[in-house]
Amino acid sequence: MSEMLMAGRTALITGASSGLGARFAHQLAAAGARVVLTARREELLAERCDAIRAGGGKALAVAMDVTDEASVQAAYDRAEAMFGPVDTIVANAGMNIEGPALDVDASAFDSVLAVNVRGAFLTVREGARRMIAAGSPETRRGRIVLISSITAQSVSPGLALYSASKAAVLQLGRVLARDWANKGVNVNMLCPGYIETDLNSDWFNTEGGRKQIAKWPRRRLMGADSLDGALLYLASDASAYVTGSVMTVDDGQSL
């Protein structure tokens, strides 16, 4: 991948204070993009931005609640004021509440759907409106990447809410891709498999976690860098003829 693959682009990433979102922001900046990191945890966002700037990148931290329409709009306003129109969006913010469906209450359901589905919709709708107003029907450079999951298409016990929300993200993305096909905005979905993180390392070191890994064809967790190539491809001009697609990167875990 060229170090300047994203040169001239302004990318907004949700859920960028930690985990995959932080990784995405660093990779997009390293590829030449101006990056806008959004999340609710302002201190962590500031730390991520400082690290990107220290490496020579351009970054802005913006506190944003993806479930709040006014907050989303204000974040785009700040991004535009600093870097100009956003032409690349990575809708990554998400949450999970695990447990048997029989024990999950309605408030948990509402919380997961609010962040994972409503939040994704509000983020990309506002972004698409602004891309179109800025001329994407002519430039054809609008890029939206919705982060889904392999659990959207495979059965994972105890993950009913999360799986349902990520399946909704897939269909949301397909429909938006069709709706915006003539607006110069490409919408694609990236479905990661299980990646080793601080949040899941304890589980995968238990007997149950080791058994789960042993069921996968390659018997391993993916590393933090496993999505870099797919993310850069979908976010850049390289994917000019790709929209409405679902890209699964799971090292064969769902086979």
UniProtKB/TrEMBL annotation:
The keyword Nucleus does not apply. SUPFAM superfamilies: NAD(P)-binding Rossmann-fold domains. Gene3D superfamilies: NAD(P)-binding Rossmann-like Domain. Belongs to the short-chain dehydrogenases/reductases (SDR) family. GO terms for molecular function: oxidoreductase activity, acting on the CH-OH group of donors, NAD or NADP as acceptor; quinone binding. CDD domains: SDR_c. This is SDR family oxidoreductase. InterPro entries: KR_dom, NAD(P)-bd_dom_sf, Sc_DH/Rdtase_CS, SDR_fam. SMART domains: PKS_KR (SM00822). The keyword Oxidoreductase applies. Keywords: Oxidoreductase. Residues 9-198 form the Ketoreductase domain. GO terms for biological process: fatty acid biosynthetic process.
